[in-house]
Design goal:
37% of the residues are buried. The protein is 42% helix and 16% strand. It has two domains: 3-194 and 384-397, Rossmann fold, CATH 3.40.50; 199-381, 3-Layer(aba) Sandwich (Rossmann fold), CATH 3.40.50. It contains 16 helices and 13 strands.
Length: 400
């Protein structure tokens, strides 16, 4: 069996994308070795058939070293050393690493091991843009130390370290090729974050209870709650609907960005929202489809920016799998998906957002038909059983 090394600078068991890829590679007969962090005792969960090496350090130390990466690259030196040891002790034959910033450390780890093995770089996001939106990079002093703008300059070099580059969408692939013409299309693999139907129960029966005391239609947002994700815009639209006497509820589930939390809590405590807005900070993944079964309209109101145009968010596919109509902003990948399969509406401004909600509130048959279109698309085109061939082909191209 070929010996595949997976490197992720986080805890393994919470990363759904990495776990899905491990499952695909195991099916193909690879012997899987993982190098990752283990910040808590609860992260020591074993995965059948997977050899896991967990680096035990406090998360605060990891975060501090990462914060200094562009000033004093101790983080890269640390990872290069651990990757070298990982390759040699496990006789790794191909190294699959996650996130742009891990590319150089992985390249140097391979070089120092003196084992000329291929390097696969898996991009979970448009990192050079995304890092500039993180709170820990904002402010004069933090910016001077973390230097987030450096990633725009370093991106090309870090991509060149990889033999194969995995991206979330063809749109992001095409953007990178346009930016760096020396990167051939054959170097890329498109692997979207589609659901694994073998791991999903659409008919789960968790006793969650309906959080609303009325039978009005429910608008639903699932995921990280932040200003950049358009959640605050959505609440303003919802407030306008209530002021115009529309009978509707709004359910939000997900963690709130620390910086945005005070304003978010202030917004949802508006007297007008009493009994009409319900917020849940966290649910188990197994409960998602129970909530989808009780709601009527799903939203993905992300602000249009390079990060949100790097691929289709998980929640879009989950909404589709739940047979729900979607109202989404005009970020290119999600717009193409929704328009292609006629499973919802796209908006470019708040007036269009509001009008889309009203259309769906007033037409239950339309909601059902759009939801069915999305579900059918998932079943035919957008699940792991289909897209896994892209990953498998990439490994075959390298001779595995």
């Amino acid at each position: 069996m070929m010996r595949c090394g997976i490197v992720v600078d986080n805890e393994l068991n919470s990363d759904v994308r990495v776990l899905r890829e491990i499952g695909i590679l195991k099916e193909q007969g690879f012997e899987i070795f993982v190098l990752c962090f283990g910040f808590r005792k609860s992260s020591d969960n074993h995965l059948p058939g997977v050899n896991i090496t967990r680096i035990k350090i406090p998360k605060k130390i990891k975060d501090f070293l990462f914060f200094l990466l562009n000033t004093i690259p101790v983080y890269e030196w640390f990872w290069a050393s651990r990757i070298k040891k990982f390759i040699l002790s496990n006789k790794i034959e191909v190294l699959h690493v996650h996130d742009l910033y891990m590319a150089r450390a992985s390249f140097n780890g391979i070089k120092n091991s003196e084992r000329p093995i291929p390097l696969i770089l898996d991009l979970h996001e448009n990192y050079p843009f995304t890092v500039t939106t993180y709170n820990w990079t904002k402010g004069v002093l933090r910016g001077l130390i973390s230097r987030p703008q450096q990633w725009k300059k370093k991106e090309r070099k870090y991509l060149e370290f990889a033999d194969t580059i995995i991206v979330l969408s063809s749109d992001f692939r095409d953007l990178l090729i346009l930016r760096y013409p020396e990167l051939s299309v054959s170097r890329f693999v498109v692997l979207p974050n589609v659901p694994d139907l073998t791991q999903v129960s659409l008919n789960s029966k968790n006793a969650i209870g309906n959080p609303f005391l009325n039978n009005f239609p429910v608008i639903f947002y699932y995921g990280v709650i932040a200003e950049r994700r358009g959640v605050f815009d959505s609440l303003e639209v919802f407030k306008n609907l209530l002021m115009e006497n529309y009978q509707v509820n709004f359910l939000l589930i997900g963690p709130v960005d620390k910086k945005d939390k005070p304003y978010f809590l202030k917004l949802i405590n508006n007297e007008l929202f009493a009994g009409k807005v319900h917020y849940i900070p966290w649910i188990n993944a197994s409960e998602l489809f129970d909530y989808l079964n009780m709601i009527d309209i799903c939203i993905a109101p992300f602000h249009k920016n390079p990060q949100h145009e790097s691929g289709v968010a998980n929640k879009i596919y989950e909404y589709m799998l739940g047979s729900k109509p979607i109202i989404a902003s005009d970020c290119i990948p999600q717009q193409k998906l929704i328009e292609k399969h006629n499973c919802g509406f796209i908006f470019t401004n708040m007036a269009e957002f509001k009008n889309s909600i009203i259309k769906l509130l007033e037409d239950k048959d339309l909601r059902v038909n759009l939801g069915k279109n999305g579900f059918d698309a998932i079943m035919k085109e957008y699940h792991v059983g289909i897209v896994k061939e892209n990953l498998i082909s990439a490994y075959k191209t390298m001779g595995f």
